[in-house]
Design brief:
This protein is of the alpha/beta class. About 30% of the residues lie in helices and about 30% in strands. It folds into two domains: about 5-220, Rossmann fold (3-Layer(aba) Sandwich), CATH 3.40.50.300; about 225-285, 2-Layer Sandwich (Alpha-Beta Plaits). The strands form three sheets. It has a six-stranded mixed beta sheet, with helices on both faces.
């Protein structure tokens, strides 16, 4: 029997560089995504995340290196047959009704998800007869993700999937993504919502300035930085205190101190006779871990 680690990846990016004029969007990037993985691409604006997805979907070709989707060239229609995509910007025919759009896209597949089931899953059933031009931005976003899944694809690329959605709609979309993944689907998503990557992804790839800075499990990414966040109120300025690698002062006066050893920091504050109260300690979030990784790279 073939073990998962021995199977060919469904997405394979090898030594890829892509330029736009003088701008290097991707610089010798390599990335493999195995069948059934849910991978989050994390990085700031301009990091190269959307460019990477455009290469995987066959919309662009690399200047150098190779990209393979389901074993073939993503620019070939046969390779894209098992792919679902939600780009950042989705153009929908304004005069067609929601149900008509789903029927039209689903008609291109051998075994599409029934339109009624798909609309119900994404909370669009009540909007089935509404023209897409009359939808709100959040409703259009839900429809765009639904269209990515209508053909029961093996791989889904989601570029900022919940942009413009309120909390309730975002949670519903997360549930739909989880359900697709639980059924064996492969997901590669980008997001500006760091809590989204933290809520969904099993594996996190950190991209900055066109370079992969880290590629590991979510837990390993957080452990890699190993920072603890100490929130405290004090009249003393603790930003330069020994062991503090980064400090921020919130508008409410609370000082947030990031340190590798929270216990040692608190002991030193006590021994130093520093008055403080409202002490809180927790692990670094994914956002804080990402910021620290980027800061470490820039300092090198």
């Amino acid at each position: 029997m073939t073990r998962p680690s021995e199977r060919a990846p469904v997405v394979a990016v090898r030594g890829v560089t892509r330029r736009f004029g003088d701008v290097v969007a991707l610089d010798d990037v390599s990335l493999d995504v195995g069948a059934g993985e849910l991978v989050g691409l994390l990085g700031p604006n301009g990091a190269g995340k959307s460019t990477l997805l455009s290469l995987v979907s066959g919309q662009r070709r690399p200047d150098s290196g190779t990209v393979r989707l389901l074993g073939g060239d993503p620019r070939d229609a046969a390779s894209r047959a098992g792919l679902g995509v939600t780009p950042q910007e989705t153009g929908l025919p304004a005069t067609l009704r929601v149900r008509e759009v789903v029927d039209f896209v689903g008609g291109h597949y051998v075994r599409p998800v029934p339109t009624g089931d798909l609309l119900e899953q994404f909370g669009l059933a009540d909007l089935a007869r509404r023209q897409t031009g009359a939808l709100s931005g959040g409703q259009k976003r839900r429809l765009a993700v639904a269209l990515a899944l209508v053909g029961r694809p093996r791989v889904v690329l989601l570029d900022e999937p919940t942009t413009g959605l309120d909390v309730g709609a975002r949670q519903a979309l997360w549930d739909a993504i989880r359900a697709y993944h639980a059924g064996g689907g492969t997901v590669l998503l980008t997001s500006h919502y760091l809590e989204e990557v933290q809520a969904l992804a099993e594996r996190v790839v950190v991209v900055d300035r066109g370079v992969v800075r880290a590629d590991d499990s979510l837990d390993a990414i957080l452990r890699r930085v190993g920072l603890r966040r100490v929130a405290v109120r004090s009249r003393a300025d603790l930003a330069a205190w020994p062991g503090v690698v980064r400090a921020e002062r919130r508008d409410d006066g609370v000082q947030e101190l990031y340190t590798a050893d929270a216990d040692a920091l608190v002991r030193d504050l006590v021994r130093g006779d520093v008055e403080f109260h409202d002490l809180q300690i927790r692990g670094a979030s994914l956002e804080e871990a990402f910021e620290e990784m980027v800061l470490q790279e820039v300092a090198r």
